[in-house]
């Protein structure tokens, strides 16, 4: 951003503002869809919500459904 702003202002006086407005709009959309409302919740409830999301995302896949099979020497 800092390197491209002088170039954009030299070419067009309004292009930099459109870029900044677009970045702000994109951030607003991401926040609106991926952040949940915390109004009226205690700190403990918010912490439980975040830690539950983190546990689900970082859960390792189980090996219960995997079966090993022997390879013959000519299959390798």
Content of β-strand: under 5%
Number of alpha- plus pi-helical segments: 3
Give the helix proportion (percent range): 55-70%
Q: How many DSSP-defined strands?
A: 0
C-alpha Rg, in Å? Answer: 25 Å
Task: Output mean pLDDT.
Answer: 79
Principal-axes geometry comes out as: flat
Structural class: mainly alpha
Q: Termini separation (Å)?
A: 52 Å
Report the uncertain regions: none
Largest sheet: none
The string of secondary-structure elements, in order, is HHH
Structural account:
This protein has 76 residues and is an all-alpha fold. It has a domain of 31 residues. Helices cover 55% and strands 0% of the residues. The protein has 3 helices and no strands. The model has no long low-confidence stretch (mean pLDDT 79).
Blueprint (SSEs and pairs):
Elements lengths: L4 H7 L3 H20 L8 H15 L19
Key words describing this protein structure:
mainly alpha; 76 residues; flat; 3 helices
What is the gist of this entry?
This protein has 76 residues and is mainly alpha-helical. It has a domain at 1-31. It has helices at residues 5-11, 15-34, 43-57.
